[in-house]
Design goal:
Protein name: PPPDE domain-containing protein
Family: Belongs to the SEC23/SEC24 family. SEC24 subfamily.
Number of strands: 35
Organism: Brassica campestris (Field mustard)
Distance between the termini: 84 Å
Shape: globular
Pfam families: Gelsolin (PF00626), Peptidase_C97 (PF05903), Sec23_BS (PF08033), Sec23_helical (PF04815), Sec23_trunk (PF04811), zf-Sec23_Sec24 (PF04810)
GO molecular function: peptidase activity; zinc ion binding
Length: 1246
């Protein structure tokens, strides 16, 4: 047919995105496409300038080509391709740098494209041709055709059932009919049209048509072998205006977390990846190489991860010789140490120190230098081992396993049934608590008063003592509140039996949560242990009482938004610090259906190494099984008590930051009162030396802990990684799971100090930078065109990045998730190991109705049943039954047209009722038993949590949307970005960078290079005693280029280099060279000048350094040093930062108002400084003003005021030092205070 594309799949058209004015890709933003999201300005009657705040202008497209809402990244139908954007010097754009227009290619009239279908490895459709000045020359194929890009990505997802492309019409992106996908075919028969290629610049030959990627000769074998990366080619389907994007061929992790195995094969003696996973198994050899690795350089550690049967960690006892460690760096004996001097000495693999071998540990060496007893020494052959620690590793006798229960017994706790379920579960677990017969146990209950219980073994019934004074808590009976379980077993069981009845008629709704925690701390601080808190309402009495917050929607989207997600009262963090000091870990179980301020309560768990369990709207009939399972696992799983964790790295590398639930005791020591197999910790690495000289780097994780049996042990995991000089090798050895775990933790932490939009955008920018850098590695050797390329190891990274942005802690706005729900999910994700986190981010979806209809067999292979499907509405068939599993919830989705016989077999008589009122129970038939067996298997695969089972029928809104549809990551739902649009958004970000490179290339051809430097000035000396931490300086910066220095004060100003009022710079940083002409640069400054005015100046968030960074990015493609940009955050994160903020704001307001007397002001001029020599010698900077503004540029109210303040502080400082009675730091502090006090911005009593 006329437009038939044989051999190429047909794609259903996606519905258009909902209109929106937001530019965020997540907060009710449309997908990238349409007039509002294009990075270039639409055509207008006015002449366009090369630089605009939103990006370069778009050249006018041909009439009828670009439709509203259509993606700007896809080509148009043959014969109507729009010219690319005119960006300054883009060829064909009509800009000022259009100097070398490419001639049109010869038009092949006699040869047609081959009629074969696409290659076996399909690529996605959708294409944006790059500028020809950036494309390497491509060899011409037969008939004048260029060779296409390299092979695309192999389709990893099974084909979607064509009988059902979608379900109900209630949500965007959710097909409303059940017609099969429409093939793009013409009704008339005829020969297939030819699509000659476009090979010359941007100009299109009259009558020339676009070449679809599948209509081209196959790539040569040489190129196919050379391209060791995957790629996605983005174009449209011939004969259609719709983008031909086949979502089914997008890379998806349908096989779950696939760990890289090349690293394990290379170093078989490394510890297993379940314990330690590096973000890349290739360590950069230099800091410059590390700076090009835009992904996190770090690791995820799960020291007590559960090992399969037969792979348990061996236990080693050195006996009288004691623990063998390096005398210098304290590294433990491991498989990578070497023995010399006939076995009498051993060399440390971390620091290369030569150590003596104790006599009891001596063994002869064989001819290869290997110990004769190597096979009998697990510590020398295995990467993970447990050492029994001698007494010198104990500051006190090993503590017994201790469980203390703090239980809310207010009205809501008893009414919901929580109290009864908790008491029954605790009683059922008494026999399985670890540490018998040493285990200790105790209880406190509370409402508006505190109830202590005497559980002494000589009593037949427990005795309750009530303390009502919440301001002065005391322990009525210190010795018998925490008792040995084996001795007081009968009393404990009697207490648990009577607890629900004791408070069944309680109508008290108050909660003395804070005093109860303090009382529990007073009871436990002698031994330590695990404190389990069951909380049902917002704390309302005594210390730590909280108020309802977050009910004002106007706070969202402002700089105050993040405050809702951090603890309101400092009591909670201080209480957590005290508990950690005394080895008390806290787990919080929260049950209320109303606001409970999980952000504050969860702080207790975060800093004590615990975790948060959240059961919103708890009802025992619904949530009882989940609470029973998770509480039982919490009580009975093996736990490491009074632990500390340290990670040692090889020479030249160190751990720079840690992320997870813990308290950082020192720079590299994590305090963990309790650790178990369900907790993991992430850290980032940094290079201490400019260049690593060793071929490998070693890592050793050491966890010193007390086992439940009473032994003090050291769990040691050791691994080695090669040092490489090739950035490509770092990408090839990348571990997506570890990278995503670090990214998720960083994003959640960012929500505690910034807006949700900022956290989501940070993830997006990190991925874009990584893909851009990887592209640069291959842009010269390969014909990339506009393909989005990525390494095999990171093919799932974009999807996981989208999943992080759509996860509960970061998703949407106030209407998408409650404050408590966000906080609870954040605390949970911060502690999850890699596999559990990846499953939560991209859950499983599989179809079960076809399997249920098959004959039952005792040996059913559930792997075939649990075959995952893409998380998209198109995966759902209205005639099917599906299970959605994210590790925390199981959702059974019943299609609208599912056979009634299946529904009746599974649900019984309630099969036609509203499913929100139906509970799934086993029926007396084989199909029901088969389904229940499957659900049991799914839960057993991950026993960490107990997924609740929810039933939903297609079309039941809003239940279906809440439980399933909004969790379909691939779809655009509720204003969030879908997978297709996300990939296009990433592609657009890369394309903008590509267009900038075109400008620079054109400028480089035509213009000479100009040196760019950064002048750094120190405006004041803030002492450590004032801030509470050392601050090197308060930086002001300016960009020096074209003989001028450009800086931001009361506008964009410039003066001849060396004549600014700031004096001589403290240092000058070489930024590189630029080929951007001066006139282009000045036009760029005009475009950004509306954002850099006296009114927009902010000492913390929008200052001279932000301006210098943006200008540097434009001129040389890189920003200014991080230590300058991060200064405001360092100051505000200092102990005195919060107190300095009001002073800074008042000072800024005073400076803007001109209240500082006799402060010399810069005199902005609307015209450049004239040729008069006296004018040239003056220090009045030229202010670049917006060309569109007709108002007179205001005088700079901030320009020289900072110099004025610094000069006064300097004079005061000199006067004080002349007295000879003060140290420099004291004199600086007093001088600063006096000057601030002079202008009324510092409280004398502060």
């Amino acid at each position: 047919m006329g437009t038939e594309n044989q051999g190429y799949p047909s794609f259903p058209a996606r519905p258009p995105p909902p209109p929106s004015s937001s530019s965020s890709p997540f907060a009710s933003a449309p997908p990238p496409g349409g007039a509002q999201t294009v990075g270039f300005r639409p055509p207008s009657s006015q002449p366009t300038r090369p630089f605009t705040p939103s990006g370069p202008p778009m050249a006018p497209p041909p009439v009828g080509v670009m439709r509203p809402g259509q993606s700007p990244f896809v080509s148009q139908i043959p014969g109507s391709r729009p010219p690319p954007p005119a960006y300054g010097g883009l060829p064909g754009g009509g800009g000022s740098f259009q100097r070398f227009p490419a001639p049109p290619p010869p038009f092949p009239g006699s040869q047609n494209p081959p009629l074969s279908g696409p290659p076996a490895t399909q690529t996605l459709a959708g294409h944006l041709s790059p500028p020809m000045s950036l494309r390497p020359q491509q060899p011409m194929g037969p008939g004048g055709y260029t060779s296409p890009p390299g092979p695309g990505f192999q389709q990893s997802a099974p084909p979607v059932n064509p009988s059902y492309p979608g379900v109900g019409p209630s949500f965007p992106g959710y097909p409303s009919n059940q017609a099969p996908p429409v093939s793009f075919q013409s009704s008339s028969q005829g020969p297939r049209p030819t699509y000659p290629p476009q090979t010359g610049g941007f100009g299109q030959h009259p009558g020339q048509q676009n070449l679809h990627p599948s209509y081209a000769p196959p790539t040569s074998n040489v190129q196919g072998l050379a391209e060791d990366f995957n790629s996605l080619s983005l174009s449209n389907i011939p004969g259609s205006l719709e983008p031909g994007l086949d979502p089914s061929s997008f890379p998806r992790p349908l096989d779950g977390d696939v760990e890289p195995n090349s690293f394990a094969e290379m170093y078989p003696m490394n510890c297993h990846s379940r314990y330690l996973r590096l973000t890349t198994s290739a360590i950069p050899s230099s800091q410059s190489l590390a700076s090009r690795w835009h992904l996190p350089l770090g690791a995820v550690v799960c020291p007590l991860a559960e090992a399969p049967e037969g792979e348990e960690v061996p236990l080693v006892d050195f006996g009288s010789s004691g623990i063998i460690r390096c005398r210098r760096c304290r590294t433990y004996m491991n498989p990578y140490v070497t023995f010399t001097d006939s076995g009498r000495k051993w060399r440390c693999n971390i620091c290369s120190m030569l150590n003596d071998v104790p006599g009891e540990y001596f063994s002869h060496l064989d001819a290869t230098g290997r110990r004769m007893d190597m096979d009998q020494r697990p510590e020398l052959t295995q990467g993970s081992v447990d050492f029994i620690a001698p007494t010198e590793y104990m500051v006190r006798p090993p503590m017994p396993p201790t469980y203390f229960f703090l239980i809310d017994v207010s009205f809501s706790a008893t009414k919901s049934g929580m109290l009864e379920v908790a008491a029954q579960t605790i009683k059922s677990c008494l026999d399985n608590l670890p540490g018998y017969p040493r285990t200790q146990i105790g209880f406190i209950t509370y409402d508006s008063t505190l109830h202590f219980y005497n559980l002494k073994s000589s009593l037949s019934q427990p005795q309750m003592m009530v303390v009502s004074d919440l301001d002065d808590i005391f322990i009525p009976l210190p010795d018998d509140l925490l008792v040995n379980l084996s001795e007081s077993r009968n009393v404990v069981e009697a207490f648990l039996d009577g607890l629900p009845l004791m408070f069944q008629d309680n109508v008290n709704v108050e909660s003395a949560f804070g005093p109860a925690v303090k009382a529990a701390f007073m009871v436990m601080n002698q031994l330590g242990g695990k404190l389990l808190i069951f909380q049902n309402s917002l704390p309302s009495l005594g210390a730590g009482r909280l108020k309802l917050r977050g009910d004002d929607p106007r706070v969202y989207g402002t700089d105050k938004e993040y405050a809702l997600r951090v603890a309101e009262d400092a009591f909670y963090k201080q209480m957590a610090a005290d508990c950690t000091k005394f080895q008390i870990a806290i787990n919080v179980y929260a049950f209320s259906d109303k606001y409970t301020d999980i952000a504050s309560l969860g702080t207790l768990a975060k800093y004590t190494g615990g975790q948060v369990y959240y059961y919103p709207g708890f009802q025992s009939s619904i949530h009882g099984d989940k609470l029973r399972h998770e509480l039982a696992r919490d009580l009975t799983r093996e736990t490491a008590w009074e632990s500390v964790l340290r990670i040692r790295c090889g020479k030249g590398i160190r751990c720079s930051s840690y992320h997870g639930n813990f308290m950082l005791r020192s720079a590299d020591l994590l305090a963990l009162p309790a650790v178990d197999c369900d907790k993991a910790y992430a850290m980032q690495l940094a290079l201490e030396e400019t260049l690593l000289t060793t071929p490998t780097v070693y890592f050793q994780v050491a966890l010193l802990y007390t086992a439940s049996c009473g032994e003090r042990r050291i769990r040691v995991h050791t691994a080695i990684a090669p040092v490489v000089t090739d950035l490509g090798e770092m990408y090839r050895q990348a571990d997506t799971g570890s990278i995503v775990s670090v990214y998720a933790r960083l994003a959640i932490e960012k929500t505690l100090s910034a807006k949700l939009d900022d956290a989501r955008n940070a993830i997006q920018q990190k991925i874009v930078k990584a893909l851009r850098e990887y592209r640069n590695l291959h842009s010269v050797q390969h014909r990339l065109g506009s393909r989005l390329i990525y390494p095999e190891s990171l093919k799932f990274l974009p999807l996981y990045g989208l999943a992080i942005c759509k996860s509960t802690p970061l998703h949407g706005g106030p209407a998408d998730a409650s404050l408590d729900e966000r906080s609870a999910a954040g605390f949970t994700m911060m502690a999850l190991p890699v596999k559990k986190l990846l499953k939560l981010l991209y859950p499983s979806l599989f179809r079960v109705d076809e399997w249920l209809l098959k004959p039952s067999a005792d040996h059913d292979d559930l792997k075939d049943v649990l075959r995952r499907m893409p998380l998209a509405a198109e995966s759902l068939d209205s005639r099917g039954l599906y299970i959605y599993d994210d590790g925390f919830r199981l959702v059974l989705w019943f299609g609208r047209m599912l056979s009634p016989d299946i529904a009746k077999c599974l649900l019984g008589a309630d099969f036609a009722a509203e499913l929100s009122r139906v509970t799934l129970q086993e029926q007396e038939n084989g199909m029901s038993k088969k389904l229940m067996r499957l659900i049991k298997k799914v839960r057993e695969n991950d026993p960490s949590y107990h997924p609740m089972c929810f039933l939903v029928r297609q079309g039941e809104q809003p239940r279906e949307g809440f439980l399933l549809l909004r969790n379909l990551i691939d779809d655009q739902m509720g204003g969030s970005t879908g997978y297709v649009d996300w990939m296009l958004l990433l592609h657009r970000q890369l394309t903008v960078s590509l267009l900038r490179c075109v400008v620079l290339i054109e400028c480089e051809i035509c213009q000479e290079a100009h040196k760019v430097t950064l002048n750094v000035y120190d405006l004041s000396q803030l002492s450590a005693s004032l801030l509470g931490k050392v601050i090197e300086g308060v930086w002001h910066t300016g960009i020096v280029v074209y003989g001028n220095e450009y800086f931001f004060g009361g506008g964009i100003q410039h003066l001849p280099a060396g004549t600014t009022p700031y004096g001589a710079p403290l240092r000058t940083v070489e930024m590189g060279e630029t080929h951007v002409p001066k006139d282009v640069f000045e036009m760029y400054l005009e475009e950004i000048s509306p954002r850099y005015t006296a009114e927009s100046y902010n000492l913390i968030t929008h200052n001279c350094n932000n301006f210098s960074n943006e200008v540097s990015q434009f001129l040389v493609g890189k920003g200014i040093p991080d230590y300058i940009l991060q200064l405001p955050s360092e100051v505000m994160n200092s102990p005195m930062g919060g107190l300095l903020m009001p002073m800074i704001q008042n000072l800024e307001a005073t400076l803007r108002a001109g209240a500082v007397p006799n402060a010399p002001q810069f005199k902005p001029q609307s015209q450049p400084v004239g040729p008069n020599p006296s004018e040239k010698a003056s220090k009045s900077p030229v202010v670049v003003q917006p060309s569109a503004s007709k108002e007179k540029v205001k005088e700079d109210p901030l320009g020289d005021a900072r110099t004025k303040i610094q000069e006064e502080i300097t004079r005061e400082f000199a006067s004080l030092m002349a007295q000879g009675t003060l140290r420099a730091s004291e004199a600086a502090t007093i001088a600063t205070k006096r000057v601030m006090q002079k202008y009324g911005h510092l409280n004398v009593s502060a």
